[in-house]
Amino acid sequence: LALDNSLREALQNREFNLVFQPLICNVKGQPKVQGAEALIRWTSPVLGQVSPVEFIPHTEQSGLIIPIGRWVLEQACQQAKRWVDDGQEDVFISVNVSPRQFKGNDLLRDLTSALESSGLHPHHLNIEVTEGLLIEASPELNNTLQLITDMGINLSMDDFGTGYSSLNYLKKFPFNNLKIDRSFIKELPDNSDSAILVTATIAMAHQLGLSVTAEGIETAEQYNYLRGLRCDRLQGFYMGKPVPANEFSFELAP
Ligand code: G
Ligand code: G
Ligand code: MN
Ligand code: NA
């Protein structure tokens, strides 16, 4: 495939970059930007901007996600270290890791090496995995997730509610944080089904000892509603779009 060939050259030709979307910590009375989700972007000389929705699946198929994922981890950790050095002592960086990266032994090595080479303390690093990873739940997978947690890295379950959400997973695996998928946030606060689901999910997660992130917040109403529900972290275009590091601000926009 032409796309695969282009992707193969993209890494060495420096066609990828990371953008960072603010994650707002819902501290009582005083919300603040505490971290960022790192998101990959690809500018191909031939195709222009290609969304990760299109190219990540190809890299998972071909295995290119391994070196690309390694690059993402390195870049994300280096950026977080710069923020720490600039005085953002509590900052965290959240990185998407695809299921394919859990096959084999590369991930633990890549995590270790990204942390070591950047000098970033592991508690500044958060890994996001989708529910899809857990379909093939196995003792090895549980072991890997536990080792990541033991390293001091935090674990989020991304896109919660879209796939094979099972409360069982949340108990069985060592997650610290649950990200409610934006499809549930979209119709807040007026849609009563969404309101009930989101309210119950937050309560349940808190009882299981997990913090909750709401993603896809696009309006002031959604923002205020979720703050009222004691949702721990807030993310969405209303507070900030993904931007390159030099445009990222720790000032809360709205
Ligand atoms: O940022 P955007 O909305 O374009 O992201 C689209 C999808 O691509 C999301 O599901 C997101 O999790 C995924 N994605 C973005 N960056 C990365 C990355 O660095 N690694 C992986 N595995 N997925 C990513
Ligand atoms: O699957 P994941 O949660 O990793 O997806 C992250 C993607 O969600 C990012 O690419 C980002 O562009 C997108 N995103 C972030 N905030 C919003 C939002 O408020 N609205 C919409 N529609 N997309 C968002
Ligand atoms: Mn994510
Ligand atoms: Na998501």
TrEMBL record:
Annotated Gene Ontology cellular components are:
membrane
EAL domain span? 1-254
Task: Tell me the GO BP annotations in alphabetical order.
Answer: phosphorelay signal transduction system
Which UniProt keywords are given for this protein, alphabetically ordered? ATP-binding, Kinase, Membrane, Nucleotide-binding, Phosphoprotein, Transferase, Transmembrane, Transmembrane helix, Two-component regulatory system
User: Where does it localize?
Assistant: Membrane
GO molecular function: any one? Answer: kinase activity
Question: This chain belongs to which protein, by name?
Answer: GGDEF domain-containing protein
Q: Which organism is it from?
A: Neptuniibacter caesariensis
